[in-house]
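Recall that a protein's primary structure is simply its ordered list of amino acids. Everything else, from secondary elements to tertiary packing, is in principle encoded there. The following example makes that idea concrete.
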Amino acid sequence: MQLLVLRRLWPPRFAVSFDQLAALLALNLLVWAGLDALHADRHAQLALDGLFGWTCYLLLALVAAAIIARAYSRAADTRALLVPALAVAPYVLAIFWLAGDLASVGRHPLAVTVVAVVYLCLLAVRVLGAAFGPLHSAAALLAVLLIATTPWTLDFLNLDTRLWIAADTQPQEAEDPGAVEELLYDQPARIAAAVERLQPVPAHVPGVYFVGFAGDGDQAVFRREALYAAQVFGARFDSSQRSVLLINDIEDRDSYPLASVSGLAQTLKLLTSRMNPDEDVLVLFLTSHGSEEGLEVQNGTLPLAQLSPADLHQALDDSGIRWRMVVVSACYAGVFLDELKTATTAVVTASDAEHSSFGCDADRDLTWFGEAFLKDALPGSESLEDAFHKAAELIARRETAEHQVHSNPQLFIGSLMRAKLEELKAAQRGRTRPSYTVRR
């Protein structure tokens, strides 16, 4: 505890032996296991696989301690360094772990990380003094360097050290073939009914029609993001009464038509009966997991094809809709960019073709991209381009703070589409925009 508050201690205060080292190692393991259990889900089960990650980190720490001891003196005993380090470690582990639950810590991750690293560097210097006595600059500088690089090392290795993991106690049962057939057979009628309910815009007025596509049915964040996007674009372009949602949700297959490749193609074709395909604008918002092959489409065990860039290109061209604004919120979303580029198209993607985007946890309201673009940037921006650049800056800052590889959102606006967007902006100027919230 004296080391914890950075008090200076000297080597005679510590008993250095194998028994002491083994007892402190066991104590640290018990503290870590207890904290892990405290933060585990209610029905989590013990999974000893986490010991592998813990052991790997322990071995790295032992190697680092040996190198630091060697830098201090060829005759220095590594155990003398490990004993004070392991003596203070349970307190540090408990404080850091519990502090991670504080909302203020979550709001300022970069500042908290800097403070933690500075504190650990000071603590490392005190531990060196407690181990060997008078400081040697080489050992102290090496210890500080190793501590300072620890966050990047941990982020790079990203080993799973959890001992308590929520098990899937409800294995997914096979779908009833009859029910699946009936569900899939019913989709064309559901889509036709959804399109039939749309209210066409008055003649000679450019209108916007919205189609939302939530491809992954296992995580409700995609459903919430598609619903929120419909509200945001509806408020901006007065398209609330001209919106169709295709949503996969394993908990609800009745409220909306399913999101599928064929369903999207049918929706786009039917839209031409309600809109003027040569003058009105389509806003297509796609959200799901993504890969270098395209967008993930899945809803439990239903046999659904994945949406590739070529599939989307074909569906848009077959529809005959000329003016298109396509937003893809997914990892590797940039794979759609080159396939969709035309003079009458605008494309916004959450990432480039080689990187992941973030924030698709099931308990989130929106992904990082959805939050930045739909919630923080688009409502108050004068143009799509302004909204994109604001969102890209917000995302880059957040990824830097979270030590994530940058997703690099992408934007393309065709030469003719720029003029069309200005026309829409002029048509909507002065209209009161309603408020909207994320619906769970």
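The mean pLDDT is 88. The radius of gyration is 28 Å.
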